[in-house]
């Protein structure tokens, strides 16, 4: 009886320190060429301070990201075609210093709504199996909700609260939820139709993933970017709350007017 009691105490002790949630907030490791549109952004705020974001290649000359990633910075290094954001010796990786940033004019006054920006590359980037632009929604999809579709987000952000950014590209999948469900999940935030939200119960993008592309596989089987990762709950990326992305279909005109991306009328 005494040995059973000791065994029971050991079980309690072990369970107390075991992970209560086995979600991998940082997602799964990507493979080379799996997400050829993914871009890492190492942003320089001043001589001493750098930060990290993500983005997507939308043409040979432009990267799409979040306004919060490039607002107030001097320059950034865009990393394309590789998996390790800080490994300058990774074979086949394209690393380009960029200084030309186009931030949506509404970002300064309402950063949670107009959180979108373009980065102009100094020279066109050559396409390959590892570097290729992602498609944006067409004009017929402006009113589409993408509700209940499985979406994918990629980035080099943190695995969870209190952890460091990932050295390797990772991806996670989550279901698109309604605007109402998003408002219930994040009652203290402003959630509008210009946002698209994903369920956070099985995983979430985290700090360091801002600007990351949110994509779906469209009706014609082609990967289409429907969002740019913007913000999460103040409770953090392990809270199970919704993740909020800037809805790309709300900014097609702005993207078309400020880049060489041709906005399609239909599939």
Automatic annotation (TrEMBL):
Superkingdom classification of source: Eukaryota
Ranges for domain Peptidase S1: 24-260
SUPFAM superfamilies, A to Z: Trypsin-like serine proteases
Gene3D superfamilies, per the entry: Trypsin-like serine proteases
Signal peptide (from-to): 1-16
GO MF annotation terms: serine-type endopeptidase activity
GO-annotated biological processes: proteolysis
Keyword terms: Disulfide bond, Signal
InterPro entries: Peptidase_S1_PA (IPR009003), Peptidase_S1_PA_chymotrypsin (IPR043504), Peptidase_S1A (IPR001314), Trypsin_dom (IPR001254)
Protein family membership: Belongs to the peptidase S1 family. CLIP subfamily.
Name of the protein in its database record: Peptidase S1 domain-containing protein
Naturally occurring in which organism (per UniProt): Anopheles atroparvus (European mosquito)
Lineage of origin: Eukaryota, Metazoa, Ecdysozoa, Arthropoda, Hexapoda
